Amino acid sequence: MHPFTYLINQSNMFSLLILLLPLLIYLITKKLQSSSLKIQNLPPGPYQWPILGNIPNVIGKNPHIIVSNLAKIHGPLMSLKLGAQLLIMGSSSEAASEILKTNDRHLSARYTAKATPINEADLKKFSVLWAPECTNEWKTLRAIWRGELFGEKALDFQVSMREKKVGEMVEFLRRKEGEIVDIGDVVFTTIFNTLGNHCFSKDMIRFGDDKMVKDWKETIWKFMESGTTPTVPDFFPMFTGWGPQGQKNKTLKYLRRLFGKWEEFIKQRKEIGSPNPVKQGDFLEFMLANGFLDDQMLHMLLEIFPAACGNLTSTIEWAMAELIKNKESRNKLIQELQSEIKNLNSIKEHNISQLPYLNACIKETLRLHPPIAFVPHLAGSSCKVMGYTIPKGSLVMMNLWALGHDPNTWKDPFMFKPERFLDSGLDFHGQDFGYLPFGAGRRMCPGLQYANKQVYLILASLIRFFDWTVPNVNGINNPGEVDMNEIYGVPVQKEKPLILVPWKKC
Ligand code: HEM
């Protein structure tokens, strides 16, 4: 061989080696990682990048969909490393049953993002949602919620208030006939006022006061967002001392706004007493009569309003969007409601509590659009799930969105087909592990019954009392054009608000 050709070949080889080096490093680390996962008996997962782990894999507008797609490759129980934090992600009914039932005892601690401005001691004393463990305090608080707000007896007691507030919503929409309305705003106002009356015997927002709606909505939504978004110390605990101060301050700002309003109500009630000379019977009255301290009251209210307003508004907005888009389903629902509700002046809960198609539409909405996509649990102790080891301290999440879209459970999983729930016996009470919009096990949603009542009543009223059109854009009025994109958050929401025009039914 000519010495020159030899040299060229040598340098080619060298460049090739340099080029291949990253690939080689990648393959070696991948091999080492997968054997390390095997040695520790952790569930499989995607390649973990140095330092960042799987953060680059999960970043995006809709992490619940990204992670569902990863699960299709790596399996229904998956290890993900977010920086230094191990996350075990469940995505199938089998995983759900083992996480939320078989191992509920080990896996029902709660993970709280580091940007939460409430310290751990207060969370332990005052919180249901963010209580780090299922302690006796947490049990007592859940029992209070059940007894005073969301249990069967309390719900019966509140029925006339729910009907009254929905009646006001209908009146408002009648006045807005032919005009554009933001469905999310109208529903939010209705729910907020209903809760305001359960808790303080007060309306919180005047219908149509757009500024007030936006203010409250922003405060609640931003509080949830900034309080649940992970920051650097969530992934790298060694930076905890640095603190996610910026985000903490943001969450604190919204927290103070909420507390400020409620402090006013508490103060007023203490000064002037109940507005009703007989017993008021609202939640504030109950808390004061039972010697709750101001701190306790504020924290309890802090959980009730965001959990209820966010999830319920999002669910009803999605249900309306699906029904506007799917004319056949809408017509079936209209027929069912027409045959049950003859009086167009009012709606009563007992008229609608047993309607199969309405029930199926709500279940189908919650399957396609569960407002809580991930349930954030923590392994309080080590255990085995689907034969794999879940080490103590791991974050453990069920992807409820993935459950609702699993092609092994649902035919045409992306289509809105309420019929699939007719005569199916499938329910969301935490027994059917392929369908868990309210979760399951000891941390299951305590607001389920309340949510059910509100969603039924509001959705039935919107459909029974009004025809709806999509606003005319460039002369086109096309329900098919309703934007159905979603954006991750707590809750998962429509990316664009649902804007419709109501027309009174005669
Ligand atoms: C459509 C409406 C709703 C849906 C789909 C929903 C869903 C959920 C889900 C999936 C969980 C997590 C369960 C877990 O961690 O395993 C949860 C927990 C919770 N929900 Fe709801 N929810 C709704 C409405 C409400 C309402 C109206 C309230 C009452 C104000 C409420 C209060 C709570 C609380 C306090 C928890 C935490 C329970 C605990 O950790 O012990 N939710 N909810």
Automatic annotation (TrEMBL):
Gene3D superfamilies: Cytochrome P450. Heme binds at residue 445. GO terms for molecular function: heme binding; iron ion binding; monooxygenase activity; oxidoreductase activity, acting on paired donors, with incorporation or reduction of molecular oxygen. It comes from the Eukaryota. Its cofactor is heme. Residues 320-354 form a coiled coil. It is found in: Membrane. The chain crosses the membrane at residues 12-29. It is a single-pass membrane protein. InterPro entries: Cyt_P450, Cyt_P450_CS, Cyt_P450_E_grp-I, Cyt_P450_sf. Keywords: Coiled coil, Heme, Iron, Membrane, Metal-binding, Monooxygenase, Oxidoreductase, Transmembrane, Transmembrane helix. GO terms for cellular component: membrane. Belongs to the cytochrome P450 family. This is Cytochrome P450. It comes from Buddleja alternifolia.
